[in-house]
Amino acid sequence: MTLHSSTFGQLSKHIATLTGTSVGSERLLEVVAAYEPILSEIAKLRELNLAEVHPAIIFEPTAAYRSAA
Amino acid sequence: MKSIPIEWTSLKGLGEGLAKGRFSSVELTQHLLARIEKHDGAIQSFIHISEHAMEQAHASDRRRRRRGAILGPLDGIPVALKDNYLTADMPTTAGSIAAGIAFGAEDSACAQRLRAAGCVLLGKTRTHEFAWGTISPPVSNPWDIERIPGGSSGGSAASVAAGFVPMAMGSDTGGSVRIPASFCGTVGIKPTFGRISRVGIVPHSWSLDHPGPLTRTVEDAAIAMNVLAGYDPRDPACQDQPVPDYAAGIRASLKGLRVGVIDNHFMDRNTPDVHAAVTESIAAMQSSGARIVHFRIPLLAYGLAAIYAIELASSGAYHDRHIASGVSSGYQKDVRDLVEMGRLVSAVDYLKAEQVRTLLCEEFKRIFEQVDVVVTPTEPITAWKKGRQTLSVAGVDESVLAASWRLTYPFNLTGLPAISVPCGFDKEGMPIGLQIAGRPFDEGTVFKCAFAVENLLNLKKKPVLA
Which of B392, B396, B364, B383 lies closest to B422, judged by CA? Predict the structure, then answer.
């Protein structure tokens, strides 16, 4: 099925608004196409229940003081 | 330079030669510059040769004469830096020719340390643009110039493998020191995250970027690490951990060393030649007294997802201003696609990737409670001919990026030290690397194991340059 060009435009605009991307409509569709196989890999993360796992990022309020040392 | 094949002399040998006055830094630098002039047209490992190299060599010789002693084992030795390390006296491009990209003329922390150790900073080596890829065009592999050198530190690996410099700095976000080391038959170490300062290295992914040296021997990598490792309060990730003398205790035997082999992910989908070379290396280690323990980490099935989410989001954030201003339209297509898709990674997916990372660190901690090191192939394949976008590895088609960082990125996600050391050649004569990883900040054990393997296998072959 092929989408009408105005639908393409609306879709691009919608994705751009949601993601905050600043590339143009046509370019955005190219980027989305390139991202699709990678997204299929990233989507595997959604299978996991990780509610009890702390992310590897740890906020360290003393960091600013350390760098000033 | 008499009959000494000076271009193949180790960093250690060069340091001793300079200390004993067998040759000067000026003679050494002139010799390597002449070799680069003769052969780098075909390999293209350097993007810039320093116009100050000879001046630095003269200064080193004068200083040595005046003091009657050397500054240290690197004094007077020419080395190279990947083109994403800022330098005060050489331009930095991070491999990009895009209009609007410019970097400061100041020394990175590693450049500062190498200068303070007396090194001659000979030049900058080519990188895949913004260190985002494993091909490093237009660099050729010195073992076969029709093949890629690996990347993103492809210029550094090629320059060391070709005998242009005994050491070159690389950076490793998903494998970018170890991948080209494996493909070019050099040693390359990615130390623990926080072991070497990243100050003045063009960021790729803040929590994955690791600086590291490429050399031709394990001992040389240890000598380089003695200069490079250490705390830097300017780098928020750098840790104030004691730095041992890595070279001093390197001559240990394998007897009693506990070696882990992770059967899934690392050992189950490699080319037959890689599989044979690695299993033979493990068997040789066992014959020398190492105890082999087998493990499985099912969670590695989510590793590629995790590194994609973290690396794309981080790189997208770094390049956001260049995307907004249109500068990224001048990037190479593969890199432009990758940085511009960073905005498409959702925050939830990104944080789930960081949660997977926590679990992976715990899995490796469990393994390192039972063994001293883990060994794997560095790469599932050897260097391929230029121009390929996909590869078939053991019957599975995958992108060149997915194939070439599959075995290296777990140690970027976990931040553990990992070295690639040559362990054989495929049927077409291309090098194969063995990866050895260790506990956090235990580069010493990694070096000891790698040194023992290097001596056990005793590979002497060098590329023949046209």
Answer: B383
Mean pLDDT in residue range B308-323: 97
Contacts of A55 in chain B (CB under 8 A): 351, 354-355, 357-358
At residue B230, the pLDDT reads 98
Residue B299 is classified by DSSP as G
Asked about B152 being catalytic, the answer comes back as: yes
Chain B contact probe: residue of A25, A29, A31, A54 with most B CBs at under 10 A: A31
DSSP per-residue codes, B116-172: HTT-EEEEEE--SGGG--S--TT--BTTBTTB---SSSHHHHHHHHTTS-SEEEEEE
Q: B133-173, pLDDT tens digit by residue?
A: 899 999 999 999 999 999 999 999 999 999 999 999 999 99
- Cβ of A25 under 8 Å from any chain B Cβ? no
Active-site hit among B82, B124, B190, B448: B82
Nearest to B354 among A34, A38, A56 (CB): A56
As separate numbers, helices (DSSP H) first and strands (DSSP E) second, chain B gives 14, 13
Structure tokens at B388: 């390929």
pLDDT number for residue A6: 67
- The answer to whether residues B151 and B184 touch, using CB atoms and an 8 Å cutoff, is no
Q: Which of B19, B153, B50, B142 is nearest to B94 (CA)?
A: B153
Asked whether the bond before B191 is cis by omega within 30 degrees of 0, the reply is no
Catalytic residue at B427? no
Is the pLDDT at A69 greater than 90? The verdict is: no
* Catalytic residue, candidates B108, B176, B205, B315: B176
Per-residue pLDDT tens digits for A4-17: 666 778 888 888 99
Closest CA to B380 of B292, B449, B278: B278
User: Measuring CA to CA, how many Å separate B405 from each of B141, B350, B409, B413?
Assistant: 18, 19, 6, 12
Paired residues of B419 in beta bridges: B189, B436
Cα B360 from Cα B366, distance rounded (Å): 10
Residues B183-205 have pLDDT tens digits of 999 999 999 999 999 999 999 99
Tokens read off for B284: 């040789």
Does the beta-carbon distance from A55 to B361 stay under 8 Å? no
Q: Is the separation of the CB atoms in B145 and B190 below 8 Å?
A: no
CB B6 within 8 A of CB B55: no
Q: Contact at 8 Å (CB) between A31 and B340? A: yes
